[in-house]
Amino acid sequence: MTPVISPFSLFFASIFTSNILLANFLGMCSFISISKDMKSSNGLGLAVTVVLTVTTGINWAVLQLLEALGLVYLRYIVFIIVIAAVVQMLEMIIDRISRPLYMSLGIFLPLITVNCAILGVSLFMEIRDYSFWQSVVFGLGSGLGWWLSILALSAIRKKLDKAPVPAGLKGAGITLITIGFMAMAFMGFSGMLQVQ
Amino acid sequence: MSDVADTRPGAILKNNLWTNNPIFMQILGICSALAVTNLLTNTAIMTLGVTLVTGFSSLTVSLLKKFIPRKVRMIVQTLIIAFYVIIVDLVLKAFLPEISKNLGPYVGLIITNCIIMGRAEAFAQSNGPVVSFWDGITSGLGYMGVLMMMAVFRELLGFGTLFGYQIMPAAFVRWTIMVMPPSAFFLLGLFIWAGKTMMRGEKT
């Protein structure tokens, strides 16, 4: 169905040309609420990247198992459980390894379970029939792309706070329009690589 | 998320459709909202699915709320929602395979739609089953209303059609940008602007 894409170009494609956020609208909820603050954005971006890479890999393996058992229709439930479990485990591991990292990352981890980007990437991975390495790279690239866009948006919003915006447009309205412009800018990359 | 003190059906309807509309006021569930709105048919099917899932999962959460330990309630709610989403997915695959293919991963993503979780958490957790069901359905309808409006604009200007029927004259130049991702953000931003301004006028 899909032509085989080398992991290398898939990596760049998932950061730029098919950015998980700006082209596929995934992970919007936390994107808008967290991007008010640059430091939190950075923390959440890192957390999303780590979780995405790990869960996409694990979900790939789980999907092979489900296919072998003929239980593919259960995948939504299983994916969600895997994501929740990975988040929970990461939380415990980080707590053990590095206290400061836990303090800065800890509060974001529970938020990630309900982040649509994580589940979305797993579902894209399934629909596009990626191999294991493609899945991992796709997860990593999507995470980095998400991180990049939330950092960029939070920087823009810092300036926006001081701008005279009509009352009804304040907050979510102007943020969405800003994201629209960012999406247009990222569309400019789309000639370079094609991944669908 | 403001709590609804008034649990009469009419008040819930008005609250969820307008004053506390999930998209305008709470900016919830827009992840999947934006992706499917470039074709009216897809939007209709998708939002119908969301409405049903919200209604039934609120009903179930409300029925089971006494048996779910507080600590694990998030994951239980997610599983309940996932259960209904699987039903929607299977029904779509069986009866509307074409649309199911178009929607792709966005059917599965109904699970992480914050509206459903939000209603389960904010309303069904502390109210009776019938009222919760009604609350879920009306929230879904509020969501549907906004999305359908967006889809009308995007399909009409982007393809010159509505529900796949040619509306615009043949000489109409399509606004290709309308079917691309950025226009979804612009339109939603403008919709929120319009909605908020109208609501502001109503209050004063």
Summarize the structure in words.
The complex is a heterodimer of chains A (196) and B (204). The longest helix of chain A has 32 residues, at 38-69. The termini of chain A are close together. In chain A, helix 4 (75-97) crosses helix 5 and helix 7 (116-127) packs antiparallel against helix 8. Helices cover 72% and strands 0% of the residues of chain A. Chain A is globular, with a radius of gyration of 17 Å. Chain A contains 9 helices and no strands. Chain A has helices at residues 7-17, 28-34, 38-69, 75-97, 99-105, 109-113, 116-127, 132-160, 172-187. By secondary structure, chain B is mainly α. Chain B has a domain at 9-148. Chain B has 8 helices and 2 strands. A two-stranded antiparallel sheet of chain B has the order 1-2. The model of chain B has no long low-confidence stretch (mean pLDDT 80). Classes of the chains: A mainly alpha (196), B mainly alpha (204). The interface between A and B is large, with 45 and 44 residues.
The percentage helix of chain A is over 70%
- Count of alpha/pi helices of chain B: 8
The radius of gyration over CA of chain A amounts to: 17 Å
Major beta-sheet overview of chain A: none
Strand tally of chain A, please?
Answer: 0
Distance between the termini of chain A: 11 Å
Shape of chain A: globular
Mean pLDDT of chain B: 80
The gyration radius over C-alpha positions of chain B equals 18 Å
Low-confidence stretches of chain A: none
List the helices and strands and how they pair.
The complex is a heterodimer of chains A (196) and B (204).
Chain A: H1 7-17, H2 28-34, H3 38-69, H4 75-97, H5 99-105, H6 109-113, H7 116-127, H8 132-160, H9 172-187
Chain B: H1 9-19, H2 30-36, H3 40-64, H4 73-95, H5 97-103, H6 114-122, H7 129-159, E1 161-162, E2 165-166, H8 181-203
Antiparallel strand pairs in B: 1-2
Helix pairs in contact in B: 1-7, 3-4, 3-6, 3-7, 4-5, 4-6, 6-7
